[in-house]
Design brief:
heterotrimer, A alpha/beta (269), B mainly alpha (296), C mainly alpha (353), A: 269 residues, alpha/beta, Rossmann fold, 6-stranded mixed sheet, 4-stranded antiparallel sheet, 32% helix, globular, disordered C terminus, B: 296 residues, mainly alpha, 11 helices, 4% strand
């Protein structure tokens, strides 16, 4: 298991090897990473889900976290945020802007500028759209212009219960809750999961615009979305980092993509 | 006809007591996942503090504004005890559900014993304003005022609670927290502050119930909290945990059912019908009438 | 494998303890402070027998709580069915003891199956609340004295005329003691056999993570019902023994406080361990009696008033100890034992094999 720990290339300290094309937001050379995850291990109910994961998130653009289902992508995001369940434990090091944050309470981290958009949206179904947004306000000057500009649907449905929204609208609400506030880093978990293709494009556009202002660590399975957004890519397999490098490089290599992500049902039927 | 009116008012009076105990219990359980056996203790603290204040607190007494002051003192005592219990005993065991239940069990046993040590095991006559024993004629029935007092108090508390949940920021946090506590945290809110608040609110409502049950039953004893608590638990389960309005509806159903069956059937049959109602609701809708949601 | 004396002791100490307890009534020694009279005096034997019965009851309750992970607040109902059921059949209907006991236990088992089937439809804390409500029905029925059967608040004293002579009278307390010991032994053996069986492993799986049992294709509901029913039957059987010891039934046996007390015993002793709950039950019962004696004696009165009041209440003392135990000794007495062993191991270097 240890043998193929890193099948890909090491993290590119000096970009320029691969084709660094139009995508505007790969990490600038020399710029310190915003988030440094080192040797992060998570055990839940006796299962060793993450086994020493290390990667960095650039200070701008989208870093995308990839991997097959169940390899621990969501667990990684949740561990960074201090959301590891009580019957589990997270060890290692997570530094934000050089400061150790592992073990700090979730609400303090979020207040400090870690915006989290969970898997499956998790909007409060019994609350109205407006109440969901009001609850998420962390400053005295929430940026409703930005949110309603991105998602006009939300202002139209302000008095509707969030539980009666469509999946896409719930996703917009979930993103909107975070974008109301100034953030240092967004952690976004599978925002396009289960959405109709048209809505996927809409969400991707919103993510693209959000990423211009604030760096994003994104878990995403939809490779078209990854292609559109990704600067750096980090691939997790079997609880460890299997590959890191520029996103295009990964997607340009079908054999690599197939072996790491098992898209196209590689093993035959 | 007049019997039915009297029975209805009496049943609603009982329902009012159940609601006052159950609403706090339901919010505490819905938000913090704590099955609070010590809730009956808050009720007893409220009752004894009112009883003590009516006899000893300057300005307080068994009648008029003095009685209002005594009840206020009881409610404050219940609130303080409940908040302290949360801060000192429950909070260190955050999210360890079973241990929290165990601690409240220990507290209920030790608390009742402490009250017995302090005030004796026998019921003490409770000071009540004389007007509560007066009777008004309502739709042909002669209805004692103490029942109406209970009903009015419960309706006021219900209104206050709903307004609080609907219109305040903490109310919003509590409603959201009942639905998904973790997600509230993930929006940057320290949900534990709300825990203390719901304990305090629950303690206040239970203490009020304690004072009013003293008026209604005419006496107060260390174990009076325990028997009300069990029916309050039933109301919470039937109404759906975390739902204040669900608790109100369930309290009315339980109070009326109990009163009417106990009157027209044999004594005790109403209590058993209530448990049967619980079983039926569970078989029909395992999450209770309102589900686990703070539908305020 | 060599059998060292300590390994032998480890394996056979329960047997040794059983033998010791069985021959205890033949010893006339006096232990000052522990009991007021010699150990084979009827008074001491009565207390010891009560301790053993509650040791067995706590162990039976732990089948639910510590071994299956079900927190029931209605266990007193099944205990009360054993107590009152047997009492009513003997005293009101003149049944012989064995038949009355058998019918009462069978009835309790049937009731447990029916009510368990309903209560287990909900999970976690909701289950606890529902069992509490069902338990309350028992308490209400007992208190309301339907048809003059239960005697209401007064309780129902047992009509001794129909009982075997060996179980009646102060001189025969020793026989009741042995009966209590037999009950405790039966519970321990049954629980041990269950724990070793495949069913017992499913119970443990349910306690640790119910979903995994579901994934294995087993029906959690059914196994929980088996655990619930078995535990309730053991409680009813304990009720029969308690009835003989107490020579009557009192409403307290049906109260939710009784269940809470069992819970306290189990947690103090160590939930899910083989002898922890027994130990908890024995110690709690003993302390309850001893503290009551002390409370009514002058020992506490000499303390300042603020302390003397609460300390004369056994439940205040025990409740406080219990709360402290939840914080500081999460494994109970049994957990304390393993901690001490671990401590000793860390101090003395392990011998080389």
């Amino acid at each position: 298991m240890k043998a193929d720990e890193r099948t890909g290339e090491p993290h590119p300290a000096s970009p320029g090897s691969a084709t660094t094309t139009a995508d505007e937001s790969t990490s600038a050379p020399g710029a310190a990473a915003l988030l440094q995850v080192e040797n992060l291990s998570v055990r839940i109910a006796g299962l060793h889900i993450l086994q020493g994961v290390s990667f960095e998130v650039a200070a701008s653009g989208v870093t995308v976290l990839l991997g097959r289902n169940g390899v621990g992508k969501s667990t990684t995001l949740r561990a960074i945020l201090g959301l590891t369940p009580r019957n589990g434990s997270a060890t290692g090091s997570v530094r934000l802007g050089g400061e150790q944050i592992l073990g700090r309470p979730t609400h303090a981290l979020v207040k400090g500028g870690l915006g989290y958009v969970p898997e499956d949206r998790n909007v409060f179904a019994g609350l109205t759209v407006a109440e969901n947004l009001r609850l998420a306000e962390r400053t005295d000057t929430p940026d409703y212009d930005l949110v309603f500009g991105l998602f006009p649907e939300l202002s139209k449905r302000a008095r509707q219960r969030a539980g009666s929204l469509s999946g896409g609208q719930q996703q917009m609400l979930s993103l909107g809750r975070v974008l109301l506030n100034p953030n240092r880093l967004l952690l976004i978990d599978e925002p396009t999961k289960g959405l109709a293709p048209k809505v996927v494009t809409e969400v991707a556009e919103a993510l693209e615009r959000a990423a211009q202002a604030v760096p994003v660590l994104l878990v995403e399975q939809n490779l078209a979305v990854v292609r559109r957004l990704a600067g750096d890519a980090v691939v997790i397999a079997a609880g460890q980092v299997a590959w890191t490098g520029p996103g295009e490089q990964l997607l340009a290599d079908p054999a690599l993509t197939k072996s790491l992500l098992a898209v196209n049902a590689a093993g035959g039927h | 006809m007049s019997t039915i009116v009297l029975m209805t008012v009496t049943g609603l009076g009982l329902a009012a007591l159940y609601f006052l105990v159950a609403s706090g219990l339901s919010l505490v359980f819905g938000l913090a996942d704590v099955l609070n056996f010590a809730h009956g203790l808050f009720l007893s603290v409220g009752a004894y503090a009112t009883w003590w204040a009516a006899g000893n607190l300057p300005g307080a007494g068994p009648d008029g504004w003095g009685f209002v002051l005594a009840v206020a003192f009881g409610v404050v005592a219940g609130t303080v005890v409940a908040a302290l219990v949360e801060l000192v005993m429950i909070r260190p065991l955050y999210s360890r559900t079973i241990e929290q239940v165990l601690v409240t069990v220990g507290l209920s046993l030790a608390g009742v014993a402490a009250l017995q040590a302090g005030f004796g095991a026998d019921p003490r006559p409770f000071p009540r304003p004389s007007w509560t024993q007066d009777v008004v004629t309502l739709a042909g029935a002669r209805v004692p005022l103490d029942r109406l007092l209970l009903i009015v108090a419960a309706v006021v508390v219900l209104g206050l609670l709903l307004a609080f949940l609907r219109w305040t920021r903490y109310g919003l946090i509590i409603r959201a927290g009942v639905e998904n506590r973790e997600m509230v945290t993930a929006l940057g809110i320290d949900v534990r502050k709300a825990f203390t608040l719901v304990f305090a609110i629950g303690g206040a409502a239970a203490a009020l119930a304690g004072a009013l049950s003293g008026v209604y039953f005419g006496s107060v004893s260390p174990t009076s909290g325990a028997s009300l608590l069990i029916f309050a638990f039933i109301v919470v389960v039937i109404g759906g945990m975390g739902s204040v309005s669900g608790s109100a509806v369930a309290a009315v159903a339980v109070g009326l059912l109990q009163q009417f069956v106990n009157y027209y059937g044999t004594s005790g049959a109403g209590d058993i019908c209530v448990v049967a109602l619980l079983a039926v609701v569970l078989l029909w809708r395992p999450a209770g009438l309102a589900g686990k949601a703070a539908t305020a | 494998m060599t059998t060292t004396p300590s390994a032998l002791f480890k394996r056979y100490w329960p047997v040794a303890a059983f033998v010791l307890l069985a021959v205890l009534p033949y010893s006339g020694i006096t232990i000052p402070g522990l009991f007021d009279g010699p150990i084979n005096s009827p008074g001491a034997l009565q207390v010891l027998a009560l301790c053993l019965v509650f040791g067995g009851l706590a162990a039976g309750y732990d089948l639910l709580f510590g071994r299956t992970g079900l927190l029931s607040f209605g266990h007193a109902l099944y205990f009360a069915l054993g107590v009152y059921g047997t009492d009513i059949l003997i005293t009101k209907y003149g049944y012989p003891l064995p038949l009355a006991a058998l019918l009462a236990v069978l009835f309790a088992t049937t009731v447990a199956t029916a009510l368990g089937a309903v209560a287990l439809r909900v999970h976690g804390i909701a289950f606890s609340m529902v069992t509490l409500a069902f338990g309350q029905v028992g308490a209400i029925l007992v208190a309301r004295d339907p048809g003059g059967l239960t005697g209401g608040e007064e309780g129902l004293s047992l009509d001794a005329s129909g009982l075997p002579d060996a179980l009646v009278g102060v001189v025969n307390t020793v026989n009741l003691y042995w009966l209590a010991l037999a009950y405790l032994t039966l519970v321990v053996v049954v629980l041990h056999r269950v724990a070793q069986s495949p069913t017992g492993r499913v119970f443990a799986g349910l306690r640790d993570d119910e979903r995994r049992i579901g994934v294995l294709g087993l029906d959690p509901y059914r196994f929980k019902l088996v655990s619930f029913t078995l535990s309730s039957s053991l409680a009813a059987l304990g009720g029969v023994v308690y009835l003989l010891l107490a020579a009557g039934a009192s409403p307290h046996v049906a109260s939710s406080d009784l269940t809470l007390t069992l819970l306290v015993m189990v947690v103090l002793g160590g939930p899910g361990t083989r002898f922890g709950p027994v130990l908890g039950g024995v110690l709690f019962t003993y302390l309850d009696h001893r503290l009551t004696d002390l409370g009514s004696s002058g020992a506490v009165d000499s303390l300042p008033g603020v302390l003397a009041g609460p300390l004369s209440q056994p439940l205040f003392v025990l409740g406080t100890i219990f709360i402290l135990a939840v914080y500081f000794f999460p494994g109970g007495l049994a957990g304390l034992g393993t901690r001490l062993t671990a401590l000793r191991r860390s101090v003395t270097p392990a011998p080389r094999p």
